[in-house]
Amino acid sequence: MTEIANDTEALTFDVFEFQVNGNTVLNNPAIEEAIYPYMGEKKTIQDVEQARSALEKVYQEAGYLTVSVSIPQQEVNQGVVRLLVTEGKVDRLQVVDAQYHTLSEIKSRTPQFAEGSVPHFPTAQKELGTLNRNQNRQVTPVLRPGKSPGTVEIDLQVKDKLPLHANVELNDRYSPNTTELRLNAGVKYENLFQKDHSLGLNLQVSPEDTNEVKVFSGTYVIPRLNGDYFAAYAVVSDSNIAAVGDINVIGKGYILGARYIHPLPLSDGFYHSLTFGADYKEFKETLFLPTTDPASTGPLTSKTPISYWATSLGYDTNIQSAYGQTQTSIVLNMAPRLMGNTNAEFDLKRDNAKANFFYLRADAKHLYTFATGWALQGKVAGQLASDPLISTEQFSIGGVESVRGYLESSRLGDSGISGSVELRTPSLAKAFKQYQFADYIKDMYAYTFIDTGRVRVKSAAGLEPFYELYSAGLGFKLKTTTGWFSYLDYAQAMNDAPQVEHGDYRLHFRVGYEW
C-alpha cells in the first residue's frame, strides 16, 4: 500500500489501472489512449502527474476548456490510482447590455453556454459566429470562476443597434430609349419576431416619367441555427422596356423565387457555400413594330406572354489571404420541361428558344492592396449557353456594373463575357486631414479603369452574331460616416452601340443616403 499526497516524496509503485471519476463528456477509448502509456510496474508520482496532464490535454484539445484533472489524496491499493475530473459546468449565464434583442433569444441560440452544461468551445464558437452574422449585433463571451468550486460564470456582452435600415439613391442607370434618371428606395428590418428574420422592401422608378419604369420587390430571409439560410422574394414590374433598334416592348410581369443557402465547412480564410434556387416567372408583353404601310393607323403589335419555372444550383467562394481577397460564383441555370414549361410560349417569344433551357453563368473578382495603399482589382463575368435564350435569361453588357461609357444592357447575347481592370489610389482622406470635415470621411479614393464585353447571339437572323463593347475612364468614390455616398464614373466608349457612338464620353453617377 502506497499513499499519494501533495508532499509525497519520489516512491515507486505499481499502476495497473487508472480509475477516472467525474467524466461525462469524453468516451472511454479517448481516456484510455491518454493514460495507457503511464501504466505498469515501478511507477512514480511523476508518472501519475504525466498521466493527469495527458488526460487534461485530451479534454483541452477536444474543446472542453473548462475541464481540469487532479490527483486526489489516496492510498494506492492493488495498483489502482484515482484521477478526478472536474468538468467546470456553467453555474450562471447572463446576457449584458442587449437593447434590441431579447435575452431569452440570445441564450437559446447559445446552448453550449446553458447553465449546468459543460461548454464545448468549438461548437460554442460556431453558435457565436451564427449570432454575430447579424450586422446589428455582436456578442462576446466573458468567463470567470463561479461561486461554487469547479464552476464558471459566463457573461454574454452584447453590442447591438436598431435593426432597421433604409436607403435612397438617385442614379442615371437607364437603358436605351428611356428617360435618364432612376430613383431607388428601400427599407429593411432584420429582427422580426426576435428570430433574426429579415424583411426588405424596395422600389425603383423613373422619376421623369413614372410610366416607363416601376419595379417593386420584397425579400424575406430566415436564418437557421445550423448557419443555413432560406430566402423568398418577389419582384413585380410594370415597365416600358426598350429593346435594341426600333422595336419597343411594353411589359408587365412578376417573379416569385426562393433560395436555400448552405454554408460549407470553413477553413482559415476560406468561406464557401451552396445555393439551391427555384423561380416562377410570368411576363405579359406587347411588341410595337414600326410599319411602312400607308394604310396602317399605327404600329403593328404582337403579344408575347410567357410563364415558366426555372431552377438553379450555385457555388460561391470567398478567399482572404496575403494576396488579397478573391470572390467567385458559378451558377447552373436550368428549366426542366417536367415543370410545365411549353415550347410554344418560348418559340413565340424567340425563334428556336426551348422550354427546357440550360446555361452556365460565372463571375470572379480579386482585389489586391499594395503596401503603399494602392489597390488593383480585376473582375470577369460570363455566360455559356448551348441554345437561343429568351431575353430575360440572356447575358447583358453595358452599364455601370459591366462596361462603363454605355447605357445599361446595351447589348444582349446568349453567351458572353465581360471584364474590368481597375487601379485605385490610396485613401484620399489623408489629403483633407487638416479640415474638420475629414472626420466624416469613411472611404474616399479615385481610380482608373478599362472595361470590355462581348456577347454572341445564336440563330439571330439578320443580326450580327457578335457584339463587342470597350471603354476606359476615371472614377471617384466617397462614403461618409454619416451614411452619404457618391460614385462617379467618366468613361469613353471605344465602339458604337445604341445611342452611343465611338468616342462618346459618358458620366455615370450614383448619389444617396443609407442608414
Automatic annotation (TrEMBL):
<keyword id="KW-0812">Transmembrane</keyword>
<dbReference type="GO" id="GO:0008320">
    <property type="term" value="F:protein transmembrane transporter activity"/>
</dbReference>
<dbReference type="InterPro" id="IPR005565">
    <property type="entry name" value="Hemolysn_activator_HlyB_C"/>
</dbReference>
<dbReference type="Pfam" id="PF03865">
    <property type="entry name" value="ShlB"/>
</dbReference>
<keyword id="KW-1134">Transmembrane beta strand</keyword>
<feature type="domain" description="Polypeptide-transport-associated ShlB-type">
    <location>
        <begin position="13"/>
        <end position="88"/>
    </location>
</feature>
<protein>
    <submittedName>
        <fullName>ShlB/FhaC/HecB family hemolysin secretion/activation protein</fullName>
    </submittedName>
</protein>
<dbReference type="GO" id="GO:0046819">
    <property type="term" value="P:protein secretion by the type V secretion system"/>
</dbReference>
<feature type="domain" description="Haemolysin activator HlyB C-terminal">
    <location>
        <begin position="323"/>
        <end position="477"/>
    </location>
</feature>
<dbReference type="InterPro" id="IPR013686">
    <property type="entry name" value="Polypept-transport_assoc_ShlB"/>
</dbReference>
<dbReference type="Pfam" id="PF08479">
    <property type="entry name" value="POTRA_2"/>
</dbReference>
<keyword id="KW-0472">Membrane</keyword>
<dbReference type="GO" id="GO:0098046">
    <property type="term" value="C:type V protein secretion system complex"/>
</dbReference>
<dbReference type="InterPro" id="IPR051544">
    <property type="entry name" value="TPS_OM_transporter"/>
</dbReference>
<keyword id="KW-0998">Cell outer membrane</keyword>
